[in-house]
Amino acid sequence: MNASEYSKIYDGNFVIITRIKSELENNGIIPIIKDEGESQRLAGYGSLNQGFQEIYVHNDELDKALAIVEVVKAEMEASS
User: Which residues, other chains included, contact 15 with Cβ-Cβ below 8 Å and sequence gap of 6+?
Assistant: First the structure.
């Protein structure tokens, strides 16, 4: 993953990340999910950020992805 080709659009707990990932995929955007806590666990190290993940998308899809994130966040705030 070349950092200049992808941008982080959201970071948070895996529940919200899963919801956003689903909406992105429903709109034809394939996100990259980065989970350093899981990577550290698999490598045998402890981690303080279990369940914390980041979503990256290709820069070509950035505007569309950010709009989807805003819709999901608004829906989650309205339901809480």
Answer: none
DSSP secondary-structure letter at 48? Answer: S
Q: How many CB atoms lie within 10 A of CB 19?
A: 14
Query: What pLDDT is stored for residue 14 in this prediction?
Result: 87
Indicate whether 56 pLDDT > 60: yes
Cβ proximity of 54 and 61 under 8 Å = no
- Nearest C-alpha neighbor of 35 from the set 53, 20, 15: 53
Q: What is the pLDDT of residues 31-53, one digit of tens each?
A: 999 987 554 555 455 555 556 89
